[in-house]
Amino acid sequence: MIKRTQTRPLQIGNLQIGGQNRVIIQSMTNTKTHDVEATVKQIKQLEMAGCEAVRVAILSMEDALAIGNIKKRISIPLVSDIHFNPDFALAAIANGTDKIRLNPGNIENEDKIKEVVEACRIRNIPIRIGINGGSLNRKYKHSEEAMIASAKDHLRILEELDYHNICLSFKSSDPLETIKAYRLAAETFPYPLHLGVTEAGGLLDSAIKSSLALGNLLLDGIGDTIRISVSDDPVEEIKVAKKLLRACGLKMDVPNLVSCPTCGRIQYDMLPIVEKMTAYLETVNKDITVAIMGCPVNGPQEAARADIGVAGGKDSAILFKKGVIIRTIPQDLVFETLKEEIENF
Predict the structure, then answer these.
(1) Which of 168, 169, 172 shows the shortest CA–CA distance to 143?
(2) Sequence-ordered alpha helix ranges (H) in 222-333
(3) Is the dihedral of CA 265, 268, 269, 275 positive or negative?
(4) In the prediction, which pLDDT does 184 show?
(5) Main-chain dihedrals φ then ψ at residue 28, nearest 5 degrees
(6) Per-residue pLDDT tens for 130-157?
(7) pLDDT value of residue 267
(8) How many helices and strands (H and E) does the chain possess?
(9) DSSP notation for 135-154
(10) What distance in Å separates the CA atoms of residue 85 and residue 70, rounded to the nearest whole number?
(11) Higher pLDDT, 260 or 42
(12) Fewest CB atoms within 10 Å of the CB: 22, 44, 256, 287?
């Protein structure tokens, strides 16, 4: 396993961030937070998908006051996202939020920030300073160095108050700038880093940009928690995050699906089986590699490291384990056979 950069640990509810090799998966709801029923429903869907902490937007006092009712009905830590109005942060804190996210680019009243800090200190609530490349203070020109300088400005206020229960993020919509900003941050600050590429686009664009940026950083040992930003159902964010952490060797209770791209040798209807298996594996929490290969010419050899796999023949497939052929199965039983083998694994 990759050794993480050592950072100060902080506590969000019963969850530790930083100071360990574990990387925490986060997401954010897209419901109106004051709609408690819709928000709780979406959070529970995220929980089931593997989300470990969830952020909600606080756009009004009504949103902030809903925090208490939401917390009673969920089982993962709740983060309140605050922009422009620090009074909403104070209300969210009073109603039991587990963490506050502030953007120093749009909250400039230091006295109010100090008030938020003192409220967080009393309740041992961490603050994430969220620096976004697109919302820097007007005095800065856009660059990764400017993002670091902006963080230092805000940290000065907190550190002068002897407050260090802090997490930092440095998100850009440019994956290469994101890499540079977080590498510089890891050299500069002792605090846990929340990784993400902001405004990353739809599912395909986000998966590519996020994997490029976050994959490089995670392999560097940088990052204590991640959010994959996707313009889609937030459950999709969790799917990408889990697969990314699995690919980096940082989360092993996620199945790994190996399948070939198909070619002219294929003689059975493989793609619907891949589609069904992909959906099924999203419900499985096991360290298992499953292979679905197009032909028996080199399928078992190419997927020899798979725990369980199939390679297609004419209207049928061969079942193999660790590259060893077990038996031939009819095409209409391929999915159910694989599912049974996975459940018994």
Answers:
(1) 172
(2) 235-247, 271-281, 299-302
(3) negative
(4) 96
(5) -140, 140
(6) 888 766 666 777 788 888 998 998 899 8
(7) 85
(8) 12, 15
(9) G--TTS-SSHHHHHHHHHHH
(10) 21
(11) 42
(12) 287
